[in-house]
Amino acid sequence: MKRVTLINLETLCWISRLGTFNAAALKMNASPPAISARVREMEAALGVTLFRRQGRRMALTFQGRELVQMVEPLLRRLDGVVGDLDNPEAASGTVRIGAGEIAALSWFSTFIAELRQIMPKVVYQIEIDLTTSMRQRLETGKLDIALFAAPAVGADMRSASLGWVRMCWMMAPALQAKNLAPGTLRERLEAHAIWSLSKPSASHSMTMDLLRDQGVDSDGIGTCNNISALIAIIASGAGIALLPEILVRSHVARGELVPLMPELKMPELEFVIAWNTDQEQLILRNIVDVALRCTTFDMLSTP
C-alpha cells in the first residue's frame, strides 16, 4: 500500500483553503502540474476521489472534506511542534551537564541561572567530577555536555574554548614566615609538604609535570579529591599546592594565602565545553552560547 506523504496532505489543505490548484501552487512554490500530481498520488493511495470540478474551482468531495477535517488539526499541531523546536522558552526535556570543580566554584551558578531563564522548562541534572571521568561519561552517552580541562579527545566530540585558568603555588602566610631565605623554585618546593588534587585530575597531572621538570621527588605528595578542602588545608599551613588563581583570589585578599614565589610565571590550564557531534539540537547550542557568555576564565593565554 502506498503511503500518503506530509507534503501531499499539506497540498490538499491549501487547495481546500484557496479554492484552486493554481493558487495552491503559488502558495507552495510549486508548479500546477506538480500540485495535480500530488492529488493523483493521494487519490491512488487512498482509493477515493478527493476533488470534483465546479466551474473554475475545485470542490472537495465528501471524502475530501472528511480528510481535510482530520488533517488540518494535525498540521497545526505539527507547525506548533516545529515552532517550539526553535523557541528556547518552549524547549523541554532533561539535560545532563558535567562540570569540573574549578568551573563549578567560579561562574557555574551564574551559568545555570541564565540557562533557567532562557529555557525554564528544561530539567538540568548536574554532575561535578574530574576531567577524565567526565570525558569517559560524555563519550559513552552518560552526559550530554560537559565543562572540563582541555583537550576534548575523541573523533565524535566537538568543543569550544572557555578560556584559561592560571595556576599558582600557594601557601599560608605563617608557613612563609618560617622560611624567608631566598632560593630556587626547587629549593622552595623541597622545603615544604606538597599537596595536589587527586589523580586523574588535570591539575594533578600539571603538578606532577612541574615537579618532574624541577627534579623534585613526587612520591610523597598529599592528595585531596575536593578543591575547596584542599584550599582550606593549604590555608591552615599544612603545606603548599598548585591552586587555581581564580579560586584563591579572595583568600589572598583576606591574607589567608600567599604565593610561594610571586615573581614566578604561572602555568595555565585551558577549559572547554564539549559535546558529541550527534548532539546538535537547539538546547545544546543554547547551552554552549550561554557558557561562552558566562565564563570568567581568561580568553587569551598569557604569553
From TrEMBL:
Keywords: DNA-binding, Transcription, Transcription regulation
Single GO term (MF): DNA-binding transcription factor activity
Residue ranges constituting the HTH lysR-type domain according to the UniProt record: 4-61
SUPFAM superfamilies for the chain: Periplasmic binding protein-like II (SSF53850), Winged helix' DNA-binding domain (SSF46785)
Superkingdom of the source species: Bacteria
Keyword Transcription: yes
Keyword check for Transcription: yes
InterPro entries: LysR_HTH_N, LysR_subst-bd, WH-like_DNA-bd_sf, WH_DNA-bd_sf
Family indicated by similarity: Belongs to the LysR transcriptional regulatory family.
Protein name: DNA-binding transcriptional LysR family regulator
